[in-house]
Design a protein that fits this description.
Radius of gyration of chain A: 19 Å
CATH topology of the largest domain in chain B: MetI-like fold
Number of helices of chain A: 11
Structural class of chain B: mainly alpha
Oligomer: heterodimer
Distance between the termini of chain A: 14 Å
Strand content of chain B: under 5%
Order of helices and strands of chain B: HHEEHHHHHHHHH
CATH class of the largest domain in chain B: Mainly Alpha
CATH topology of chain A: Rossmann fold
Number of strands of chain A: 10
Number of domains of chain B: 2
Strand order of the largest sheet of chain A: 6-7-8-3-9-10
Strand content of chain A: 15-25%
CATH architecture of the largest domain in chain B: Orthogonal Bundle
Structural class of chain A: alpha/beta
CATH superfamily of chain A: P-loop containing nucleotide triphosphate hydrolases
Helix content of chain A: 25-40%
Radius of gyration of chain B: 24 Å
Distance between the termini of chain B: 52 Å
CATH superfamily of the largest domain in chain B: MetI-like
Chain lengths: 272, 291
């Protein structure tokens, strides 16, 4: 394949316009990532701003999920992995040895590809993050659980069976409970790894509406395979290919006037 | 090119039928074996079972009376073995499956566990005699027998626990860690509760297998005859498998006590099947509660 040009020059005007007055939340600088000897990410730099939804798109195996998982150090779980470069959260490097990874992860919520509620009640699922973070006050926990479920637009559907198993819910409901579970610990950032790929169109629509709501309070980064979804929910779109960030910009620009042919080919479905 | 040649298809279908029937026969033999064993023991032993048999100690050189001390002894040994082997086995399995990073040390430990499973039970008995009874000066006692049986069941417990832990989806672990839980909180609050049904079943199956063993307890815990009930873990006891062995090989009236031997075997089988049944019922109830 042809060499692609450096990412920083791929920045579009609209991107700058959108982000000009929003402070930077996460700053990724020259991120390299290796699984053993295989390099999965090559020199990627990208900023994420407060109250903005960024979509990471690209064909399977392009590294977008790996990139997402670097942001809350979930890749630490893979023993042969190695990270180079810097990821600054509010200016502090999250890979600095002095950083407590457990504390870090409570500031960054994550929603996974398949709904993965614990085999516990709906209430215990949402309360889980509070309990492990040392909250004991019963009324406080009950209140926060209710707030989180309301915020996730699932409260009305589950309020009568909140002490029943979360596994009894439908896939779309489970996913919103998982979002509530992530929101309960009041994270600053929400990472979503293809949150709708296992859901039907109606459940997907609900989650997308939810993302619009949540953007007011969180910085959201979403990985998706669904072009329309990226176009619908995100302000910023970043296109990854073969472990490289190829192009990033305002979502409208990327989808209407991408700078690079590769991006256009992918968006219009010519490959990927 | 034609896709289906009728004769070829017939031949393939015929072959398929034969193979499936051979497999069916193989699995039938399994069920049949259990049925024959149980039928044989019940047919020959049920006449010996009565209230006296279950609630009295043996009398008249063990040719009459009951087997209560043996039942109590076997129960003590089994419960003791569970209490010893379950914490150690589950802890090792958690370490191996959740914490340990692959390396030479882990390979050696796994090799050790696998080989432990292959050691003959009589060797465990001799080891128990040399180590627990003599060297640690425990004497022939419940504790020495329970430790020996526990050591014998460890590989089974570790194996089934590891299997149960592996069956817990990784995404549960990731979700928990992603919420700011520590690794231990994740294991304690999510992984273990999810794996618990499998762990308990494995443990009880391992122990019930060991409970029927004669060789590991004949030097470490069991005695030929004692009319008194154990009052501490340092007492020696009678035990069902050893009692059968004694009656069948070293009694004064081997032929005359045949029905007692079968009766004892029947009690032992029901005790073991009962333990397995409890494990299975408990597991299915736990699973239901989780869904």
């Amino acid at each position: 394949m042809p060499k692609v040009q450096a990412t920083s020059s791929g920045e579009s005007v609209t991107y700058k316009e959108i982000c000009v007055d929003k402070p930077v939340k996460i700053e990724v600088k020259h991120l390299n990532f290796y699984y053993g000897k295989v390099q999965a990410l090559q020199d990627n730099s990208l900023d994420f701003h407060i109250n903005e939804v960024s979509a990471l798109i690209g064909p399977s195996g392009c590294g977008k999920s790996t990139f997402l998982r670097c942001l809350n150090r979930m890749n630490d779980l893979i023993s042969i992995s190695r990270v180079e470069g810097n990821i600054l959260l509010d200016g502090l490097d999250i890979y600095d040895p002095s950083v407590d990874v457990v504390m870090l992860r409570s500031r960054i919520g994550m929603v996974f590809q398949k709904p993965n509620p614990f085999p516990k009640t709906i209430f215990e699922n949402v309360a889980y993050g509070l309990r492990v973070n040392g909250f004991k006050n019963k009324t406080f926990i009950e209140q926060r659980v209710e707030e989180s479920l309301k915020l996730s637009a699932i409260w009305d559907e589950v309020k009568d069976r909140i002490h029943k198993s979360a596994l009894e819910l439908s896939g779309g409901q489970q996913q919103r409970v998982c979002i509530a579970r992530a929101l309960a610990v009041e994270p600053e950032i929400l990472l979503m790894d293809e949150p709708c790929s296992a859901l039907d169109p109606i459940a997907t629509q609900k989650i997308e509406e939810l993302i619009h709501q949540l953007k007011k309070s969180f910085t959201i980064i979403i990985v998706t395979h669904n072009m329309q979804q990226a176009a619908r929910v995100s302000d910023i779109t970043a296109f990854f290919y073969m472990g490289r960030l190829i192009e990033k910009g305002g979502t409208d620009t990327i989808f209407t006037r991408p700078k690079l042919k590769q991006t256009q080919d992918y968006i219009t479905g010519r490959f990927g | 090119m034609s896709v289906s040649v009728p004769s070829l298809q017939r031949r393939r279908n015929f072959l398929q039928k034969i193979v499936f029937n051979v497999f069916r026969l193989a699995s039938l033999i399994n069920g049949l074996a259990l049925f024959i064993i149980v039928y044989f023991i019940v047919a020959k032993g049920w006449k010996a079972i009565n209230w006296t048999f279950l609630t009295q100690p043996p009398v008249d050189s063990m040719t009459k009376g009951g087997i209560l001390p043996c039942i109590v002894g076997t129960l003590c040994l089994s419960i003791g073995a569970i209490l010893i082997a379950m914490p150690i086995g589950v802890a090792s399995a958690i370490y191996l499956n959740e914490y340990a990073r692959p390396g030479p040390l882990i390979r050696v430990i796994r090799l050790g566990i696998n080989n432990l499973a292959g050691i003959p039970s009589i060797v465990f008995g001799l080891f128990g005699l040399a180590f627990f009874v003599v060297w640690l000066k425990m004497g022939v006692s419940i504790i020495a027998g329970a430790l020996t049986l526990g050591a014998m069941s460890l590989p089974v417990i570790i194996g089934t626990t590891e299997e149960a832990l592996r069956a817990v989806p990784d995404t549960y672990r990731e979700a928990s860690l992603g919420l700011g839980a520590t690794k231990w909180q994740t294991i304690y609050r999510v992984v273990l509760p999810t794996a618990l049904p499998g762990i308990l079943t494995g443990t009880i199956l391992g122990i019930s297998r060991a409970a029927g063993e004669t060789a590991p307890i004949m030097f470490t815990a069991a005695v030929f005859f004692t009319p008194i009930m154990p009052s501490s873990i340092f007492d020696e006891v009678m035990a069902l498998p050893y009692h059968i062995y004694v009656l069948a090989t070293a009694g004064t009236e081997i032929e005359a006590t045949r029905h007692l031997q079968y009766g004892t075997a029947l009690v032992l089988i029901f005790l073991v099947l009962g333990m397995n049944l409890i494990a299975i019922i408990y597991r299915s109830r736990l699973r239901k509660r989780m869904q």
